[in-house]
Amino acid sequence: MIMKKVIKLTESNLIKLVKKLTNEAMAPEPVFTPKSDFFVGGLFFKEGETSFNTSITNQIINDVANKVKSSIPTIQKFHKDSKFKLPQFIKLYVGTSSTGSFDRNKKIAQSRMNYLTDICVKAFQKYGIRADVAYKLVVQSYDEYTPSKIDRDFYDPSKVNPNSAERTAYIVIEPITTTGRGTENIGDVSGSLIDSSSYVNTVFFDLVDEEGILNAIKRLQTYSDITDLNKTMINARRGDLQSFLNSQLSDDPEERRMVANHLNSIAKRSGKGSIANIVGDNISIIIENKKVIKLTESDLKKIIEKVISEQTFGYEYPPIEQQMKKVKPDAGGKYCFSPQMAQRLKRESGLAHLVYKVKQGDVLSKLIQKNGGLANSIHSIEYGNDLCPEIKKGIIKTGNVIVFNTSPDTSTNM
């Protein structure tokens, strides 16, 4: 009779794993940099002109490229992120003068807008960034499409002198960066808030360290930091962030105002509106409700696999196909396992697999002892590496890539 090892799944483990699975873990996010980093480039077109000569165009492209350079690491990090959407940090504005018909003005304005957009795309391409990625970061503003109004029943548009100021176009760049506190730092912030608080807070006797609370709040950098701190305070049984601040700053209007200003400032950096307001003697903080996450049978299976891996072996590896992107065979070598086998191993043992490139002098028995779990043997290695039958004889070839099962043997004979 075979008995399987029982794995205890605590409430704490389940909460942590569900948060990780649903991408609720605390993490940095893309935000706008301080206003001092703004770049505004003004372009002045002649009457009817929609572009400049090659020399001037190349100069503008270089200027834009220099201004977006600092944002590239953040773009690369988040351009495929489903949780944090990259803000469109380049805004384009164009205008036309009063002369000409509405259709002609609109056509000229659109041509100028296309010209500015093309400049921005080429600026990104100087760093090898794809055009489709660049387009997503540009906002075409139509605020200035309409020329100044004239009384066309009184004036002849073709006779009115054009206003050169209306033929101005702008490229506005507000660089972005990656920032945020992360799990440990948010824990430090909540700890500082609690350390600075006191249950003794009256008009006659106040033991609250208001400066400590204000300094802790000022360590928050993004809207996600605010939501993460709110959850952390609730988990610490100190109420949500709003109720905590109101209980500690009830007789401190200046500190309440400074807290609200900072929360609104970092929320706007994250592309949100104002979230904090002073209402009477209280601060009101509006935090978006999180959507409900449905836990499927497949999700639950992943959670259980992670618990088994953490409790019996202490860690897990990325999926085999993800490891294969980094671990590749040498010239003349090969993967010793087929794609079908990789999927089968994933179904059978989850994430308990290590992809490894054989090095000069490696011996299979020692590799199993060092990298494999207790369930491994030459037989199990042979099973997982179906494209290299020589493993059955204990032979491994330098430059080949093999896969180990790192899970322990959880069965017991009875």
Strand order of the largest sheet: 3-6-4-5
Over all CA atoms, what is the radius of gyration? Answer: 30 Å
CATH superfamily of the largest domain: OmpA-like domain
CATH architecture of the largest domain: 2-Layer Sandwich
Number of strands: 12
Form type: flat
Strand content: 5-15%
Number of helices: 15
Separation of the first and last Cα atoms: 5 Å
Quickly count the domains: 3
The CATH class name of the largest domain reads Alpha Beta
Question: What quaternary form is this?
Answer: single chain
Helix fraction bin: 40-55%
Low-confidence stretches: 1-5, 311-315, 409-414
CATH topology description of the largest domain: 60s Ribosomal Protein L30, Chain: A
